[in-house]
Each structure stands twice: as structure tokens, then as C-alpha cells.
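Revision sheet: C-alpha cells.
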Amino acid sequence: MGDDKTHEGLSLETIRAAAERIEGQVVRTPTRHSRTLSEITGANIWLKFENLQFTASYKERGALNALLQLDPADAKRGVIAASAGNHSQGLSYHGTRQDIPVTIVMPKSTPTIKIRQTEMVGGKVELFGETFDEAYAHARELERERGLTFVHPFDDPQVASGQGTVALEMLEDAPELDMLAIPIGGGGLSSGMGTAAKALRPEIEVIGVEAQLYPALYNTLNGTDLPIGGDSIAEGIAVKEPGHFTREVLRDLLDDLLLVDEGHIESAIALLLTIEKTVAEGAGASGLAAVLQHREKFAGRNVGIPLCGGNIDTRLLANVLLRDLARSGRYARLRIMLIDRPGALYQVMKLFAERNVNIIEVIHHRVFTSLPAKDSMTDIECEARDAEQLDALVASLREAGYSVSRVEIDQRTD
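Predicted:
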């Protein structure tokens, strides 16, 4: 990996042409240095805020570049795609702007919010099948039946050229960058960005990042057979098979390919919100997650990270933030064994008050437990100033004779 080769339809020239073509029609998002994230990670971090696009994703760039190169007759008939994510919104938004009819085929299981978001920006959604593969196959059938043009979300040199404009802007705004950490799903963003970056600066290192649950390209390039599947928070890069075109591009371009676990992705989302005050979806935060999980790889380097999307369900985001508080020791669920009689809980509450720890919720377990009938197991969710304050509370409870344990969450990142 790491050799600079030219692939048909994707080059610095096609990326520069795409930049001229889409100029003024997508947001030229800022690239900013993060002093705090740099201090936390030990690397010099620059962030590219692609979550500030109108549809909150870089996908607009490639979709628009492909749309602007359509033959007028093809444009009049319309385009079609299979997508339940950011590609559907980017294609629908810019297709509608260009008076090009856009049809998006989604699986029947697609959440209503994603259907509504696509329809709000002008796309016509058709639901088919239970899986993405079934929806994709149906979209290709409709392409032939209706004479539509299929716009692939990543496995297309025109789309990848549009995505490569992200790197042109990053390197113009932060010429000191010597490493890029790019999330990889199908490979469109990394192919385009990597092609531009290597052409402009051959010595720059291009590091791909995949979710550990979906190591599709990792398996392809390394000849491994790691399991693929699971409910990843980084659904934007949860791809079972990389593109045929993009995998060959990335075989030549990537200097390394790293896997990141769910806990570090969650932590990256939380850090971006609390420190940078910006919302990133799981895929969009995966570049930062790689720097958090593989610190030695990035230590002391000037690292550019595209925040490639910001479309995350608000309830999921709230859950991620609470889990991050739990990992940091500021939020906890304490399991305390009590004798089930009047005043027992009151005595425990006094200890919480003495330690100035706030109680969020109290849950009693009396029936579904192996404890004696006169005992109860009580879970108390609470928040404190820091981990030390919680530790002091637990010590006080144990000194008072209570049996106390912490209900831990999985995917710890410490």
C-alpha cells in the first residue's frame, strides 16, 4: 500500500475539474486547528467541518459532480440510487436544484426519519425489500426499466472526484498537514481525498479508518477473514463490501488501514460535541476515534480529519453522551443491597446528600432477584462532579455496612 498510481477517471485533474464545477453550489467548509484535541491526543489535529454542508455530509460533492456531467436527455429522464443515508439526501437536494428527477430506493426497514429527510429535499422514495442488497438490486432493475441513470454512492470515478475536493480545500487551508485520517465505508471519500493528497504532496501519509465491526476493505487488502456485521454506531461506514473501483484505488494509495471499536467512536462523538461544539455522526467521528485508539501512530504528526457527516439521531446522541459521562466516572449506577423495611432507603439518601452527589433515578428490584424476600436490590443512577467524588461516596456506603457495586457499561476505552 502507499504507491501513487493514476486510475482511469480519477486523478488530480478530474478532482480540480470537479472543484470548478461545483464551486458556489456546496459549502466551502472550514478547516480548523483544535488546540484542545491536540493536547488530548498528542497529535496536532486539524478538523474539516463537512458536517456543515446543507445536508450535513460531504456526499453532496460527489453527487453534484456526477449530476452536472449528465447528458441533457439523461438528466430530463432522471437519476436513481439505492441509499438509506447521506447519499440519498445529497443526490435529492442537488438533483431537485438542477430540475433533475431523483428516485431513491430504500429498504422497507429504513427509519421514517431518513425517509422524511430525503423527501424534504426533493427525492422520491420507493421502499423495496428487507435489506440494502435487495433495495440495490431493485434500483438497478428500475434503472433499466425506466431509462434512468444510476448514481452510485461511492463506486464511481465521478463521485470519487467530487469527494476529492475535500482534500484540495484541506491542504490549501492547512498546508502543514503530513497525515490524513479518513473514514472508509465504500471508499469514495478516501479514494478521492487520497488521490488529490498524494498528487499534491507525495510524502503525505493517507490512513484509512474502518469500524472494527465492518473490516471489509481491511480483509480485502490484508487477506484476512475478520467477521463482518453488527449494530455499529458508525452506520455510514458499516459496509459489507467495498467498491470494486475504489478498492483498487485504495490498494495503491493507503499507507495504512486502522480499525476502531465502538467505544472509541462514541468517545470521539462526545469530545467533538463537548470541545468543538459540533455534532458528528458515528462515521463522521471515526477519524478522530482512530487517533484516540491508535495514539502511537499519530503522535506528534500534523493530522487532518474530515468530519464527514453530522446526521445522528438525537436520542442516540443523548445516549452516547450519558455513556461517555459514565466512562469518565461522572455518571454511575450503583447497585446497593437493602433490607426492605421503612427508612432503609432514607439512610442511604443521607449519605448521598453528605457527599453532594445528585440522584437521578432510583429503581427497586424485589421480585426478579435471587435475594431473600425481605431484601431488595436497589439501583441508584447518580451524577457527581468527578470520579473522585463518586469513589468517596462508594467508600462511605461500604463503611456504613452496605454492599455496593457499580453497574458497568461495555466497550470501555480506558
